[in-house]
Amino acid sequence: MADSLYPLTFTPVLKHYLWGGRNLERLGRILPPHGVVAESWEISGHQNGVTAVDNGPCAGRLLTDLHAELGLDLIGRNCAWAQARQKFPLLIKLLDANLPLSVQVHPSDDFARTHEGNELGKTEMWVVLQAAPNAELILGVKAGTTPAAFRQAVESGRLEPFLHRLPVKAGDHICVPAGSLHAIMSGLLIAEIQQNSDTTYRVYDWNRVGDDGRPRPLHLEKAMAVINFAQVEPGLRPPELVAEQKGVRRWRLCANQYFVTERVQMAAGATFTGACNGESLEIWGVIAGEVRINRMTLAAVRFTLLPAALGEFAVTAVTGATLLRTYAGA
User: Domains in the chain, ordered, with CATH?
Assistant: First the structure.
């Protein structure tokens, strides 16, 4: 088991959806020569796209196989809820919204378990890595929206007046609990941290057609059952500064029952020390600059998984660097 307890990196799994483009090349992803790529699944134990380790003694092994072998030593005691369902808890993605995504919603754990077999619900969060001028996204509904009026607007193909739009720019973060009506609009490159789920209820698809020339299916009945209509015109939340010392500043971005995500800003030469003591895995993503994590060098944009039983670790900034740190809270 000791051979498996080191910072793990993975070969991404690429996903092809009609709203994607070629912009993930700007983040260092190697894309097929033709066609569009919408998502890069960076760390995934989901059956629809399991990532394989690409470094160290475990190179070539699937994350699901490591999880089956290591259990809580990989994911941590704070993720016992996921272990009980034999699930890796999180899924890390990069998204290229070259075109708008559909207006959609994700279910809670309870709803997903009832209606989608052993699939988890999907609480997620986004960090905007790059944004075109005037970029925006949709989160929640406009004031005065009722479920009946909303449904009628979907069925008549005129949902736009009920959608709450938020301007966004590079560096912004957005917390998206299960039940949030949302859509990522065009011109955005985003890092997404979410529960390990691939369940999406499509509500509205801008009256467009899919690759086969036909409208993509909607999931209106399930969507209406899970949309939080009380989420009225939410705004962006400011980051919360939680620590500042010796060239390292940490801000909490989102915290929920499944994960906590921080932004970590490091001056060149600064070091952050921590310990994976069995409570939780940690996932670190370099979104600008270059760092060393123990003996491994990691440059933007890459993610690494620190097993829960790893023990002490050190992150040292080779250059000035910005990172995302995710772990499961108590």
Answer: 2-226 (2.60.120.10), 240-327 (2.60.120.10)
